[in-house]
Amino acid sequence: MxxxxxxxxxxxxxxxxxxGNPDGKxxxxxxxxxxxxxxxxxxxxxxxxxxxxxxTSMLILSSQFKYKPAIGVSNYLYRVDDxxxxxxxxxxxxxxxxxxxxxxxxxxxxxxxxxxxxxxQLLESGPLTEAxxxxxxxxxxxxxxxxxxxxxxxxxxxxxxxxxxxxASALSRSIRGSVKLGGQASIRARDWxxxxxxxxxxxxxxxx
Length: 208
Description:
By secondary structure, the protein is an alpha+beta fold. The protein has one domain. The chain contains 8 helices and 6 strands. The chain has helices spanning 27-36, 47-61, 96-100, 127-142, 149-152, 162-181, 189-193, 200-205, and strands at 5-7, 13-15, 74-80, 83-87, 102-108, 114-118. Strands 4-3-5-6 form a 4-stranded antiparallel sheet. Strands 1-2 form a two-stranded antiparallel sheet. A hairpin with a 5-residue loop joins β5 and β6 (114-118). α2 runs antiparallel to α6 (162-181).
């Protein structure tokens, strides 16, 4: 049995959080960070919006960053040297390579989902749209299952760095709360998948 599971009084394995973590955050610090990333202002959302925020948030949380994102603050997503990177540095302050790889302006919302204002590069075919397309294909494949949407949410992804892991859990709690409010709980991920558009750029651009 994993060190993240214990058995309750009925003998059922349940997930637990470890007292610390490999990134050096103690239990007290972790609990404070957990509280600060509690989703707030949850509302019911249309199915396409849920999918768009799920996809956008997972794209951002798959990127490299080593700082604590703040609600309402602009972050900048790049694709440079075949890696996704989130930064507080705007593209005009960086090199031409970063300007070419600029994906968009990303903002963490109070409900712990991420929104993005895509860059103009996503309107044109090229390496950037191809990379988004590959991420979209993997996202769509993950949803091709009879498991519910709630069951495939990233509540605890051990391999993620600390902040990405914490915000992935917050995202999961947010989406679970929204689908419950919208009467969309227990719907198979494969049925949610039917509402996906044909490309990742379409989701990021917010097109119907």
